[in-house]
Specification:
Layout: H1 2-6, H2 9-15, H3 22-27, E1 30-32, E2 38-40, H4 52-64, E3 69-72, E4 78-83, H5 88-95, E5 107-112, H6 115-118, H7 126-137, E6 146-151, E7 165-170, E8 173-178, E9 190-196, H8 198-215, H9 222-229, H10 231-239
Parallel strand pairs: 5-6, 6-7
Antiparallel strand pairs: 1-2, 2-4, 3-4, 7-8, 8-9
The structure holds iron/sulfur cluster.
Length: 244
């Protein structure tokens, strides 16, 4: 975790070349709040923290800059709420963490549950698969926002049927669901495949993302895209798609 944080310093330095316009604040992952202060949410893969010093440091920084609250988010992050605009750069600098992709047309989050690592009900290593997908896809630009949820068993604690791409652990491998979403027009994901190995899940996600990037309209969530072209057509296109 610490190594990952150190490697991000160059990217953060680039972000601080910007000023403090609304766009700059968005680029810094700072979201304006009702009272005109800002919230930021560092990226914490899977919401799993094994470096407890990092958690202490987060609390220290929150206290130093007078945060109104630290808030656990639905994307498995810990947000710093109630920051002053002029403090945002310093807070990022002190944290030395990457921002979570909380806004914009991109892979917003890769949620994963404890699976066979910690949960007694786990049937697949959702932490292992989720971590790999997080490294590869988090923040990737796409036609619309895109969320991924990897659950270790059919209890689906990661909302795998209400999310753009979901995988669900079973004793025989993963089921893959596509096109789920919440929001104003909720949609349940469609079953795309069963009994998949982690490698097959990753390969299928690669194909979906590549095909979706090339074929969907701007702001068209995966579920709406599937509705437009038809599920059977989508299945055929995706499963025969060659990643470029
Ligand atoms: S989805 Fe299953 S394995 Fe994952 S946390 Fe929930 S009960 Fe445990």
């Amino acid at each position: 975790m610490l190594e990952e944080q150190r490697n991000t310093s160059t990217k953060m330095d680039e972000r601080f070349q910007h000023g403090n316009t609304d766009e700059d604040m968005m680029a810094k992952g700072a979201i304006i709040q009702r009272d005109g202060t800002y919230a930021i949410a560092p990226h914490i893969a899977g919401g799993v923290i094994t470096d407890f010093n990092m958690l202490r440091k987060m609390a220290d920084v929150a206290e130093k800059y007078g945060c109104a609250a630290m808030k656990v988010t639905s994307s498995q992050r810990i947000a710093f709420v109630g920051l002053q605009k002029e403090d945002v750069d310093s807070v990022w600098n002190e944290l030395a963490m990457e921002p979570g992709a909380a806004v914009g047309l991109c892979v917003r989050s890769v949620k994963f549950c404890p699976g066979t690592t910690f949960c007694r009900l786990g049937q697949q290593d959702s932490m292992g698969l989720g971590s790999r997908l997080d490294k590869k896809f988090h923040g990737m630009n796409l036609p619309s926002k895109f969320k991924i949820g990897i659950s270790g068993c059919s209890n689906m604690c990661m909302d795998s049927m209400q999310i753009d791409f979901g995988a669900v652990g079973t004793p025989k491998g993963y089921k893959i669901y596509v096109g789920g979403n919440g929001g104003r027009k909720p949609r349940l994901g469609d079953l795309l495949a069963e009994e998949q190995t982690p490698e097959q899940v990753e390969e299928t996600l690669d194909k979906i993302i590549d095909y979706y990037k090339a074929s969907a309209k701007t702001n068209e969530r995966l579920g709406r895209f599937i509705d437009r072209i038809g599920l059977e057509n989508f299945k055929e296109e995706v499963l025969s798609h060659q990643v470029h």
